[in-house]
Amino acid sequence: MVFVTRRAEFSASHYYHNPELTPEENQRVFGKLNNPHGHGHNYVLDVTVQGDVDPRTGMVVDLKDLKQIIETEVMQAMDHRFLNEEVPAFREVIPTTENIAREIWWRLQGKTGAGRLYRVRLYETADLYVDYYGE
Ligand code: NI
Q1: Cα(74) to centroid of ligand 1, in Å?
Q2: What are 122's strand-pairing partners?
Q3: What is the CATH number of the domain that holds 89?
Q4: 135 band by pLDDT with thresholds 50, 70 and 90
Q5: Among the listed residues 20, 52, 42, 16, the one whose alpha carbon sits nearest the alpha carbon of residue 31
Q6: Interval between CA 57 and ligand 1 midpoint (Å)
Q7: How many Å lie between the centroid of ligand 1 and the Cα of residue 63?
């Protein structure tokens, strides 16, 4: 079994707010992250697929195809977006790093060709990342 990781970077803004909490509770739980004008991050995304090396090509997955699916499913949807307002999934779900990683997983799952999606790793900053391995 071989694991292949493709990295992509995108910039996006977000804020944290739970409509089921009062304004005071939101402020207490999320602090300055509750500011509805949002703040930005330069996210770094590592998408890892697993599979066997195809003896005919020497590859697990065509990296061009993997790059293209990340472009289509993640970059076009999230790069330079205000996640809360421009990505429908985050109208109901708080766009934390955890939830963004899960949303990226769901967008990529089943679309990575011969390589089975193994892990989505999302860095919010250089020293903080979230791993998601599916349910
Ligand atoms: Ni943030």
Answers
A1: 18
A2: 45, 130
A3: 3.30.479.10
A4: confident
A5: 16
A6: 41
A7: 30
